[in-house]
Amino acid sequence: MFVGHYATAFGARAFKPAVPLWLLFVAVQLVDFAWAVLVLLGVEKVRIVPGFLEASPLDLYYMPFTHSLLGSVIWAVAAGLLYGAMRKGAGHWAAGLILGAAVLSHWFADLLVHAPDLPLIAGDPKFGFGLWRSLLWSQVAEIGLLLVGFWLYMRNTRAKGFVGKLAPFAFLFFLIAVQAYSHLSAPPADASAASFAITALIAYVLIAFGAFLTDRTRQPK
Ligand SMILES: [Zn+2]
User: Fold this and answer.
1) Tens of pLDDT, residues 44-61
2) Which strand (E) or helix (H) includes residue 119?
């Protein structure tokens, strides 16, 4: 899953104590950041198989460190503890809990769309409901989730000025455009796992920066 993960980040912005939106955007993709780095290092494995699933050419056959349920829990606890310990003021552990839950949400969102490639610990059994087998239904689910999250964000924040009325919609349009491009453009014939991982990292960073800019134009209600 790609932009659907950000539904959780948008939604979690409503919780108190507030966690910055950009940080929630990093949190919900944290295990994919780690996945891209581990793919580049050759630790986790992926093959690009055109037509593997209608909505994804990725055969994700080995990723126990980032996409097992146990691995996800460890990433979530570590991120939550680190953030809770670094943050100052009242409710810092509650903020850490929110961040950790955002990290863990990634596995469950991936579960909807992935082929059965998500292990509990490592190896079999692996899980995935395989919505990526249908381009149409996977996109309906993913964009639908994103819109629900976006609606929650808009409901729970208000614009600081005129820009704050428009900026979230511009950002939403950007997210949907990136999603459409990633699914509708055919991967280059010579696409490698490494180039895919680098592209993913760049996209995740740009999107988190977009969340940072957008959230500067809004304030909690
Ligand atoms: Zn993932």
Assistant:
1) 999 888 888 888 888 889
2) strand 118-119
How many helices (H) and strands (E) would you count in the chain? 9, 6
For residue 127, the CA-to-ligand 1 centroid distance in Å is: 13
How far is residue 47's CA from residue 59's CA, in Å, rounded to a whole number? 5
Of the candidates 137, 218, 210, the one whose C-alpha atom is nearest the C-alpha of residue 172 is 210
pLDDT tens for 93-118 read 999 999 999 999 999 999 999 999 99
| Token pair for 219 | 């304030």
Integer Cα distance of 175 and 37 in angstroms = 22
| Ligand 1 centroid from CA 33, angstroms | 9
Identify the helix (H) or strand (E) that includes residue 185: none
Q: How far is CA 34 from CA 24, 39, 66, 96, in A?
A: 16, 9, 7, 19
How far does the centroid of ligand 1 lie from the alpha carbon of residue 32, in Å? 5
Residue 54 domain boundaries: 5-220
Is the pTM higher than 0.70?
yes
| Total domain count, the chain | 1
Distance 110 CA to ligand 1 centre (A): 6
DSSP 8-class letter at 131: G
CA of 102 to the centre of ligand 1 (A): 13
Ligand 1 centroid, distance to 111 Cα (angstroms): 9
Please tell me the distance between residue 10's alpha carbon and the centre of ligand 1 in angstroms: 18
Cis bond leading into 119, ω under 30°?
A: no
Fill in the amino acid letter for 40: L
> What single-letter DSSP state applies at residue 161?
S
